[in-house]
Amino acid sequence: MNNIGKINTSDWGEFKLGKLTNHKTKEMTGTGLFNIISSVPYNNKDIEEVDENGLNYVTRSKFNNGIKCKVAKKDEYNINPAGTISFGAENADFFYQTEPYITGNNMHYIDTRHLSERTCLYIKTILQSTFTADYSFSDGMIPRRIYNKNIKLPVDADGNPDWQYMEDYMCSIETKVKDILPALCSAIQYQDK
Questions:
Q1: Domain 13-162, CATH homologous superfamily name and number
Q2: Residue 151's beta-bridge partner residues?
Q3: Helix (H, G, I), strand (E, B), or coil: what is residue 120?
Q4: Low-confidence ranges of the chain (pLDDT < 50)
Q5: Distances from the Cα of 98 to the Cα of 46, 117, 118, 166, angstroms
Q6: Whether the Cβ atoms of residue 113 and residue 84 lie closer than 8 Å to each other
Q7: I need a surface site. Which of 41, 123, 151, 192 has the fewest CB within 10 A?
Q8: In this predicted structure, what is the pLDDT of residue 1?
Q9: d(CA 85, CA 5)
Q10: CA 137 to CA 140: how far, in whole Å?
């Protein structure tokens, strides 16, 4: 895959996004690709901020991958797993979480632990482009509003999501950036002189 231009989505398939999972009863609603789970919320009074070696505290911020700070880990926390895509109801942003984390209010995650990080970053971009324009602070992107919505993904010969294509595409992007970055940095340094 050498060409990383505009992606032709005309032959992609449509898939229901997810299944709602009740974290108390473990019952599921829907037939989509991913389990969507509402995270147990922790308020500022519930956390103890630390400088490093703590647990990520993810909130509805649009910045820093949604990570507000590191917090001291407590036994009573219901910790969300690494390898999931978090999102907040009011900001309509999606973030791939590489480490276990807890969240603030109105946070949810899509369980993508069975997929590679590159594939999840591809999916995160699809989710961002699919849902961001339709939801805002006044019209929250909560799981029951989006779980049954369709997303378009590349498909394999059997009509299933082509996870390998997504992985390969993101790998191609990384390679291209690595090839371009040294020249770009040199050009910036030259302009600064």
A1: DNA methylase specificity domains (3.90.220.20)
A2: 15
A3: helix
A4: 1-3
A5: 23, 8, 11, 18
A6: yes
A7: 192
A8: 41
A9: 25
A10: 6
